[in-house]
Amino acid sequence: MRSQVYTGQVKLHLRYRQPQRTALSSRARDSPSVRPLPGLAPDVVPYDMSGKEGHTVRIPVTLVENMPELKENPFRQQICKVFTEGDHGHMTFEEFLDMFSVFSEAAPRDIKAVYAFKIYDWDEDGYLNKADLKATLLKLTKDGLDEEEVQFVIDKVLEEADLDDDGMLSYIEFEHVISRAPDFLK
Ligand SMILES: [Ca+2]
Ligand SMILES: [Ca+2]
């Protein structure tokens, strides 16, 4: 699965599998911070992952969504969807490590931005339109805004960030606006 970002003549393909992520994952695999996952379904995830288990072990996403790290996250379902390819009901151990790598403090900001964009792009069309922004806002505020307030915030965001005035945010526009909010991806 891939999404596309158009910037004039330049077409960037944002793929789920990126070289940086592979590098990140292998680093994460060696890092002690990823090791202690004793609560993660010992019957599904073998202790010794030295062989091909990273590709073949399939963890039900319901288990992943209920981990302490994700349980309270309003985007947990969307996060699991973004980090699973093909079968969204299960996560391979490799996908699982990728997910934690991206959320780790060590992950580069641009990688975090790419995944934040994917998470907010609910209909997976490669743009954040008003419906995507609305769904995101309602999750962020835990449905604490009424219709009028939501509309107000969306209009403000687009006024500020929609540089080509097409009523939605491309990845480049999104990246531009979050680059001015240094704490956004923390
Ligand atoms: Ca979209
Ligand atoms: Ca735009």
TrEMBL record:
SUPFAM superfamilies found in the cross-reference section: EF-hand
Keyword annotations of the record: Calcium, Magnesium, Metal-binding, Repeat
Keyword rRNA-binding: no
Domain EF-hand: 108-143, 149-184
Origin: domain of life: Eukaryota
One Gene Ontology biological process: calcium ion homeostasis
Signal peptide extent: none
GO MF term (any one): calcium ion binding
Record protein name field: EF-hand domain-containing protein
